[in-house]
User: What shape does this take?
Amino acid sequence: MDVTPTAVRQSPPPAEDEIFAALASPVRREVLRLLRERGPQSVQDLASCFSMARPSFSEHLRVLREAGLVSERRDGRRRLYRLEPVPLVHVRDWLDPYERFWRDRLSALRHLLDDTETTSDTQTTDDAGGHPHDSGSGPRTDQDEERP
Assistant: This one.
């Protein structure tokens, strides 16, 4: 007879889709914000921040728990929920290439605008006097100089 203790079966880490699905709800994102800012909270304290039936709110907590975004522990008769930030690393990793994409695009736009501004400044210099023109009046013409 085998007396080797059986391994404790742990649930697999939440799938990326499960994490994103949990974050899709504004209520669940607000729960995460509250836990981040205030620390561990009882179900009663969290639920008091929302105007919804308790079973509906409990369902939101269940989704967050299954996604690994919150943990629950019993403290006497109370259940305390705590933010578990590790799964958010998956979100950050997924968003990182998009952040780089937009940073590169904005950098290219900044360089383009800088080049356009430099070119514009060069073109607005009066060849005769070397003074810049009023940017709102457009280029000077011979007719402009004939006016009294």
The two ends are 114 Å apart (CA to CA). Strands lie at 41-42, 70-75, 78-83.
